[in-house]
Amino acid sequence: MRKRKKARILWSKRFLPLILVLCFLCWTQTSGAQETLATTTTLEKLVSQWVELKRQIALEKESWQEDRCQLQNERTLLRQEKKLLQKELKQVNSDSLAKNAQRLQLLKKKQQDQAALAACEPALRQVEAALQQWEKRLPASLLHPLIKHFNKLRNTSEKSVSQRLQIILALYAQIESYQCNINVGKQVIARDEQHSLEFDVLYLGLAQGFCVSQDGKYAGIGTLEVTGWEWQWRPELAVRIQQCLNLQAREKIAEFVPLPVRIKKDAL
Hints:
The chain is 66% helix and 14% strand. It is α+β, with helices and mostly antiparallel strands. The protein has a five-stranded antiparallel β-sheet with strand order 1-2-3-4-5. Helix 3 (147-154) packs antiparallel against helix 4. The radius of gyration is 62 Å and the shape is rod-shaped. The protein starts with a helix and ends in a 20-residue tail after the last helix. Residues 5-12 have low confidence and may be disordered.
């Protein structure tokens, strides 16, 4: 029994280290296999991530190239637009200076014109007052076409100088036309304080007038006085006056017709 026990002890001493070494090797191989498997999986993941990263970098690079071309084009356009705006701004500044100079010149001219118009104001009022007297002197048949202008002449406070001059010139032109022509028409004339009658009238300018009734019973000679037209009744001149009216209307061949004319020493 002692020998067997001793043999067992010797066997244990000899083979126990070997067994421990074998166990360690087995554990080491198992752990290494697991580590190798884990390392391979991790490496595959890293490679996959690296490939994806490269793909994204390539896409970003391609996108950047497109954006870069677009940005360069935009930059070129913006530079061109900047040059155009600078040119326009320079032109605007130049035009502004020219317009300011022109504006100052126009303001100066306006002031000069206003001063000249102010100097003309007394003369305009004098002429307007003189023209208003003609409203009382013109016979009714010749006054009617000018009533509109005389009404404007009475209301010149709100009119410009040019408008007032137009009214004055229009009146003077028509009055001058009356002065230089033979004027005919129809007109109601008072024979006395109680009787008025429509006459055919003929005016030699604005100096002498003749009238005849349509039935030929009444005729007269008119002259322009300070108070207006005054008529002297001369029924014996009815035929001659009617003859002159027919000549003026070109209803007869021209001929000399004697009529009395009154010549004044002092004209109105």
